[in-house]
């Protein structure tokens, strides 16, 4: 790969690189983006990119793609669907966790500040290491567990009311916006499962077709795995799919209390 060279209209300061907008640009927005490559041995920095929004799409992800394609190919971030479905482009935008593909630049006042999801190891730039996050999700066994054989001539059926219980929790896209906005998860992410994994656990516990409810609740009966939730509600505020992990966690706690007494 050819060595990247700074454009002629850019400059470097002790705080980061600045990429100026093309001459004659009329609708200029500044994007201040966290840059960090652990393999380089250098400290993190904030690079500033000025874009002409008349030649850029409306969403933050559009701006990031324009920067990578036309200004600075070294910028690293995840993205896929561009429709708020896959969760790949989750990052911290203007101080709030969200999806870059559905966050409009016009909804942000002043400079657009972008950094990776907080309190996670950084692979590079805007890409967090979510290895532990996915391991926690896998630990709740997110699949149907049954003991009785399936009907030979049809699916395992549910009533409309039973299906509605799992409808909204099933919409989670595992973007990690909720868990990485939770102070309890920041402090105890090695033992506290976090809102996303607990929402997934709730989804299977309330599924009428699942026959491992007791075992699933036993797995959550722990001072840390479930009870480190202090109902701060950041998770519900951060969810880009308008889900309510805090409510699901509260209902899990009630299930355990009712089971004891």
Characterise the protein shown here.
The protein has 261 residues and is α+β, with helices and mostly antiparallel strands. It has two domains: 10-128, Beta-grasp domain (Ubiquitin-like (UB roll)), CATH 3.10.20; 131-260, Fumarate Reductase Iron-sulfur Protein, Chain B, domain 2, CATH 1.10.1060.10. The protein contains eight helices and nine strands. It has helices at residues 60-71, 131-139, 160-167, 183-188, 194-205, 213-220, 234-238, 245-260; strands at 10-13, 16-19, 28-35, 45-52, 90-93, 96-99, 112-115, 122-124, 127-128. The strands form two sheets. It has a seven-stranded mixed beta sheet with strand order 1-2-4-3-7-5-6, with helices on one face. Strands 8-9 form a two-stranded antiparallel sheet. Helix 2 (131-139) packs parallel to helix 5. The longest helix has 16 residues, at 245-260. The mean pLDDT is 93.
**Biggest sheet architecture:** 7 strands, mixed
CATH superfamily of the largest domain: Alpha-helical ferredoxin
Computed Rg: 22 Å
Order of helices and strands: EEEEHEEEEEHHHHHHH
Task: Please render the helix and strand layout as text.
Blueprint (H helix, E strand, L loop, with lengths): L9 E4 L2 E4 L8 E8 L9 E8 L7 H12 L18 E4 L2 E4 L12 E4 L6 E3 L2 E2 L2 H9 L20 H8 L15 H6 L5 H12 L7 H8 L13 H5 L6 H16 L1
Helix pairs in contact: 2-5, 5-8
